[in-house]
What does this fold into?
Amino acid sequence: MQLPPGPREPSALQTYEWIARPTSLMRRAQARFGEPFTLRLAWSDAPMVFTSDPGEIKRVYAADPDVLHAGASSAFLEPFAGPRSILVLDGADHMRERKLMLPPFHGEALARWRDTMASVANEELARWQPGRPTRTLEHMQSVALEVILRVVFGGGDPQLREAIRRALGVPMPMLLAMSLWRGDRGPYAAYLRRVRRLDALLYERIDRDVGDGSLLAVLKQTGASREQLRDQLATALAAGHETTAASLAWALERLARVGGDDILARVRDGDEAYLDAVVKEVLRVRPVLAITPRKARRPYELAGWTLPAGVHVTPCIYLAHRRADVWGDPTAFRPERFLDGAPAPYSYIPFGGGVRRCVGAAFATLEMKEVLRALAARFALRPAARNGERMRRRSITMTPSRGGYVVPHALASAPGHADVLPPQPPDRELPDLQPRAPG
Ligand code: HEM
It folds into this structure.
């Protein structure tokens, strides 16, 4: 059985590009080969077939979970998340973990975390110095990590915080080396040592008494084993902060450039519908996860191709969100587009879909709103450099290349600060972020 066409470069080179220039790799492959196209990446055990077609995406998300396995496509996460993590399980085991993890991140439980999110955001923003260029990614990581630590353990935990940073902050060259060589020595072994250090701390916390209402307390009541608890906690800590932090850094990077004064003014005025639209537009125009892969356990039909069992098929979030036939002016940052009604089905998929849809979607959306609300109350934003930032990979997420580098200016209403702001420059969209018509 043949696969859809794709770049002929060796897998090592495609992997390098996937890490160093992910967006340009996807756009070039789409422009050259049309869709679907195939990439060969070192950390998946088989070729990966990409589609951004809403009809095909719908079929993938609705497919029998015994035919398309998302857990098998995420096997590379196992060294950190553990073999019992919802991320790497499939079938009945996956659904069991999912039922345990969903409730603490939804409904009433979610509403309880709103104040925590707002106070962590305010504590962080109170330390920002007006007029000083600030790499917001680092600060948003602090906020998101602190929020998830308080949710998981019922309070902050500096020792654990440092261990998580060390285990997850894998620099790009190390990521590349790890994806190619998994030996007993070298970067992969060093990474495993960091994870083991984190494990020791997690087990220590699991064995302690924990406060009521924390995620750990809730999970403990389910009768899960220590090992299961360890994997659930590691998953929540990892999945629950890098993505939200990167999305927030993108929000600030965009707002510093594209009509952010008016946008933040509407947020400041309490326009909830608009705030919701702003968050949605950030997740559309700068999705921090590019793909939601599934491994075919049986031959799978995609856009007229019969893909053999064993290959990975993936809806491509990045390309779906910039289809010129679905989104008017797709690279423009225009929250209003979400006020005019819901987007076409399966054209907007920042949280994936089907039985694997992100467990933390509502939680992350709420957190982004609370941080933006707190920010709007204090600051106006200006870019710290002339051009917009490119999408660069940092571990798994695609983050702003200069770390979301902005200058926060205090508002006139804040005592002791001037309100004379430089005019907001026009946004100069980078050539490599321009859309192409889908093939
Ligand atoms: C803006 C922030 C976030 C984004 C963009 C995001 C995005 C995603 C995406 C694209 C997936 C894969 C879905 C699929 O394969 O169809 C996913 C899965 C997941 N996310 Fe998130 N996520 C975010 C925040 C969070 C948070 C705060 C948590 C909290 C625990 C979380 C927990 C998870 C889990 C556990 C899964 C696996 C679900 C499963 O396999 O059943 N995420 N997320």
User: Anything to note?
Assistant: The pocket of protoporphyrin IX containing FE is lined by residues 70, 86-87, 98, 101, 105, 235-236, 239-240, 243-244, 247, 288-289, 292, 350-353, 356-360, 363-364 (CB under 6 Å). The radius of gyration is 21 Å.
